[in-house]
Design brief:
Layout (H helix, E strand, L loop, with lengths): L1 E10 L2 E11 L4 E10 L5 E5 L10 E3 L6 H11 L2 E4 L9 E6 L4 E10 L1 E4 L7 E5 L10 H12 L12
Parallel strand pairs: 3-8
Antiparallel strand pairs: 1-2, 3-5, 4-10, 6-9, 7-8
Length: 164
């Protein structure tokens, strides 16, 4: 995958635009996912896309010319997921994961919510709150989600992320 980007620095809150650059990346596509955590009990929202499958984090592939944050909001809308009482700081909570099975680089944003409202969607078969000790996920999703949560919040007792 060949990607073009503009170097951007942020110094003391001031955005400084740099040069246009191009790089060939060692993966075939880029996607975004939402780690949606319910404040009440620390459960993580899982999305089931096909019969007999495992749960995944909501989200999807970034379209050409689309920003990662725009993609994530579009995907949540397409999947019929409306967040209830999100704290709005999700843009600051970013983790990165590489999934070798799909040769995919994934940007994972963490949301804290009181709940979700689920509307009908052709993309999802089922949506479920999954406790942190359950493993109903695609391979390594549970482990990687919890590692990203720990990385973002080094001390996180409110959602009971287990210490490993």
């Amino acid at each position: 995958m060949n990607v073009q980007f503009r170097d951007t620095l942020i110094i003391d809150g001031q955005k400084i635009e740099g040069d246009q650059k191009s790089v060939t990346l060692p993966f075939s596509h880029l996607s975004v996912r939402a780690i949606i955590i319910r404040r009440e009990d620390g459960a993580i929202l899982g999305a089931l896309h096909r019969p007999g499958g495992k749960y995944a984090l909501p989200g999807g592939a970034i379209d050409d010319g689309e920003k990662a944050e725009e993609t994530l909001l579009r995907e949540l809308d397409e999947e019929g997921i409306k967040l209830i009482q999100s704290d709005g700081k999700w843009r600051e909570r970013l983790g990165v994961n590489y999934f070798q099975g799909y040769n995919e680089l994934c940007l994972w944003y963490l949301f804290l919510v009181d709940g979700v409202e689920i509307n009908n969607s052709e993309e999802l078969l089922h949506v479920k709150w999954i406790s942190q000790d359950e493993d109903l996920w695609y391979p390594n999703n549970r482990k990687n989600s919890l590692l990203i949560c720990k990385h973002i919040f080094l001390t996180w007792s409110a959602v009971n992320i287990p210490k490993t």
